[in-house]
Amino acid sequence: MWLIMACLSAVFAGLTAILAKCGIKKTDSDVATALRTGVVLIFSWVMVLVVGSAGTITEIDGKSLLFLILSGLATGASWICYFKALSMGDVNKVAPIDKSSTILTVLLAILLFGETANLMVKLIGTLILAVGIFLMIEKRETVGKSKGNSWFLYAVLSAVFAALTSILAKVGISGVESNLGTAIRTGVVLLMAWVIVFARGKQTQLKTLDKRELGFISLSGLATGASWLCYYYAIQNGVVSVVVPIDKLSIVVTVLFSYLVFKEKLTKKAFCGLCLMVAGTLLMAIWA
Fold it and tell me: Contact at 8 Å (CB) between 87 and 29?
């Protein structure tokens, strides 16, 4: 079941990036992040009520709560960097760098959680992933986009925080119902997102939101909520060093829709990189 949930997480995560990209053409990325997090929070608590785990919130110990909060802070930082990068560069450029968090996560899972079963397969798969990511990072600038490499820095920071998110969540969600853990983390992300919006004085932009973009932001929030629920169920019940690479297969969904929606074509080099990313992921998912 946790393998199925990891695969579903990848599908919803892939849709998230495309829907979010559609929602931040005019809307500021920080404001969009705060709005979509609100949608995720509502979705998460609805699921908590459906499964009936709300009553167990008083049973969460201090350690689990602390790591859930830290995981939420890392998620918020990752989101802010990721959607800032998306607003500045191509989906096909940003997504592969963001997915490089897989490499750091797998290595940390091996070191911290002792997930050394089939270690050589995991290391080979991680190396293939790294080569694939390198090939997918394009150097050309997008016409009409701001010049410079600021998007690259934000994408890298997004990957680092995303890796920390998975590790912290694995510790925090231990002994906590996965839907409830997701809802608690989302509350932390929401608070962080709105603090940043008000700190930067961007709350006035709420009055001039494009309704069409607001719709895409809301759909992105629903896709994110679905992805999270599947992902943290898989993290709680499965092997982190296998779940995370599967989740990152969302890059395939993202690339497909970025071509269909934004006409962002892959070069031969980038396509080879994508194939290597998929190969490395499948290697770990099947044999690790």
Answer: yes
Q: Please tell me the least confidently modeled range out of 43-47, 130-134, 142-146.
A: 142-146
Name 51's Cβ contacts closer than 8 Å, sequence gap at least 6.
177, 179
Give the mean pLDDT of 232-248. Answer: 80
What DSSP line would sit under the chain, residue for residue? -HHHHHHHHHHHHHHHHHHHHHT-SSS-HHHHHHHHHHHHHHHHHHHHHHHT-GGGGGG--HHHHHHHHHHHHHHHHHHHHHHHHHHHS-HHHHHHHHHTHHHHHHHHHHHHH---TTHHHHHHHHHHHHHHHHHH---SPPTTSPPSSHHHHHHHHHHHHHHHHHHHHHHHTTTS-HHHHHHHHHHHHHHHHHHHHHHTT-GGGGGG--HHHHHHHHHHHHHHHHHHHHHHHHHHHS-HHHHHHHHTTHHHHHHHHHHHHH--PPPHHHHHHHHHHHHHHHHHHHH-
Q: Please report the pLDDT score of residue 190 as a whole number.
A: 93
Q: Give which of 143, 227, 156, 147 is closest to 186, Cα–Cα.
A: 227
**DSSP characters over 155-191:** HHHHHHHHHHHHHHHHHHTTTS-HHHHHHHHHHHHHH
Question: pTM of the entire structure?
Answer: 0.70
Q: Is the pLDDT of residue 201 over 90?
A: yes
**Distance (Å, whole) CA 108 – CA 232:** 17
